[in-house]
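Subject: Sanity check before I submit

Could someone independently write out the structure tokens for this chain? I want to compare against mine line by line before I put it in a report. The sequence has 589 residues.
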Amino acid sequence: MPLKSTITASLSSFAVPVRALIGVAGVVLGVLLVLAPLSTHQIAVVTGIGLALAGIAAALLPTIDGFTRVSARVFGAVLFLLGAIIAVWPAGGAPWIAFIVGASLIGHGVLQTVQVIRHGGDQRATSVIIALASIVFGVVALSWPVLTLTFFRLGVGAWFVFFGLQLVLAALYRRTPEQKRQRGKLARWSRTIGASLALVLAVAVALGSNWALGGVPLPQPGAFYDPPTSVPSEPGKLIRSEPLREGVPRGADAWRILYTTTNTDGSPAVSSGTIVAPKARGEDPLQLLSVAHGTTGVAAKCAPSLSATPFADGAGAALEQLVVDNGWAAVTSDYIGLGTAGAHPYLIGDSEARNVLDAARAAQEFSEVSVTSETVVWGHSQGGQGSLWTGQLAERYAPDVTVQGIAAFAPAADLFGLAEVNKNDAAGKTVSAYIAATWGELYPQLNLAAQLTPGSARGVEQIKDLCFNGQDVLAAILHGTQVPNQIFPDSLLDGEFGDLLRAQTPVGPFPAPVLVAQGLADPLVRPEQQREWVADRCAAGAEIDYREFAGLDHLSLVAADSPLTPELVEWTLARAAGEPATPNCNALP
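---
Independent answer below. Compare away.
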């Protein structure tokens, strides 16, 4: 046998067990990606090792002509080099790494397709299917540039598993031409079935990615939200109303309202909101609950009054009990810029308070329901901040509205602290994107758009048009995971922007008893931050009833089955009845 042929045969014989070992390693790495609790850097390292091994396997592909041999080895070398870079330098930047991963998977699929087309083989269909799966997974990887994303881990991890199995099965099923002809149908179809499952998974991941990132079409504000030509200059005046049919609690009537309010600089503005009241109501004025809603987004279409569930925000079950079972009326404000035109002053406490107080005033002018001028104020998260600010501002801004109690559930009381602690979390990046999109208009002197961290501007543009309700919550959070770094650089937090964040902390004094509820498993509003804010307010003389709930997070705190629900109803009825306050500042944890 010629020397060249002998060397080629030896290398081919050597390549088979190496590719089999690489296949086993690929399966292990894929399982790690899918199942192991890996950090961001660990995911990058595992991904890089897998790509490097795939490069070695590509370089050892069985080849016939020189063109295929050269192309396979060149691609294998490039893939190995890129995988090694990712494994050694995992902090090199998520978008850049994701591009390499996606391009590598697509390139591997194309190379395998070319190999099959040029040289055929008894498993041509199977190889083409696996190649297509590789290409689809590559496209998914390009769509999800942050390595911590679940879909990215599932996609790349599954590709490693199937790629590895393909190498192992290829080594196990090496036969002479006669043995290949004698192989049973089950053996011949086993790889095809596995490859088909890989392709199905790849397509499912791709479709799921598109569904999750796309959000859902939401109704845009119609003519109801347009202010008339002549708008009253006095805040708290009802402009118009119309019945609400969707999402209304059984046993209640509800209406959408448009009313006047003011901007933080005192200039006139218009806001929308809702009123809900029991169907069975007499002529006596109903006790009024004023609700400051939590984060729903910053686009006009994100107004709660446009939602299919306008009363589900925050402690929705407690609100329904108060209205249907206890005969109260409730009024909510959408806030300026949600529903109505203009920039939404997101997490600007003074603006939220004005909107809530003017909604309570407008409710007193509503002819369908008679309500008192006394009110208890509720709010969750952003609305928790809003309810505290409503109490703080009430006597100065709306002395005609008597606040009897203020309840705040997981309130965003320390906005600067939240920005600092949550700046690298997906939810924190989403909230930061909302702030960047709105405060850039409200405070042009900050020039926020020019000071965001590299790679953040695109994420802000995508997130600002997504609402924080329904499927859009998932889309907004997932887009938040796609922002590679914290949105605001530390230098920005240290300057005027940081001072404005600190200025949103409600400090009182409060004209009525305050209830603050906090879940101890809340990853967004941290219990230790809440305790610090409560301790500071207690030291300043505020009457605060602080309650913690073990095992409850940001949303389960206000769920229907939360222990807070009956406690909140009881506490609210007690405030309206004029019962003594129940502060517990002396017993803080």
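---
OP: Matches mine. For the report I'm noting this point. Residues 3-35 form the longest helix (33 residues).
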